[in-house]
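Chapter review: from sequence to fold.
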Amino acid sequence: MPFTDVNLHYDLTRRQRLTVHLRGWMPNILPYLFVVAIMMGLIAMAAMRSPWYWLLAIFPLWVMRGFIAGFANIIFVPLEHMDIRITEHTLGFVVGKQRWWTHLDSIVRIERFHDDLWTFCCYHGKCICVPVTMISDETLAHIRKKMAWANTPEGIQASVQRGHQVVNALLGRNPSAEASIPDKSGKPHD
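The token string follows.
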């Protein structure tokens, strides 16, 4: 049976986003804080020689940028409107006025950080929350099937191939055209 696209529109409150943000960062926060503490200690010692070293205090903020940006979003955006589209292979979400897409096989875990939300965590750090009541068991099973497929040799190969396509697009190359250009022997490249 073919997968039917799912369109979801809903709002997330500050409380929902705060819970997800904190619980999502909890496993990783201690290593980050350890690195920041070491960096700040070194910067403080260097600042004893010259106050200009305090400018280096920007680097620990860079290390914690995702954590800080999440809190800024929670503070300044009281109600976040979500526009999610789930297709057979991708999940789309709107940021500002632009729709961004991620492949379903890039989702590395599905959690319930909040009682009434499923949270899809992607390998690139994006977490997308969907109310439990809005997503069907069939859609959830489809996403889990794609996650499992991502760990097969075929899934890994598909991901690598997509990466090559992105690099070629960024560099302005057309790999199919390059493959048809003959080498010195006159045979096309394989």
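Two observations follow directly from the output. Residues 179-190 have pLDDT under 50 and may be disordered. Strands lie at 6-13, 79-86, 90-95, 98-103, 107-114, 117-122, 127-131.
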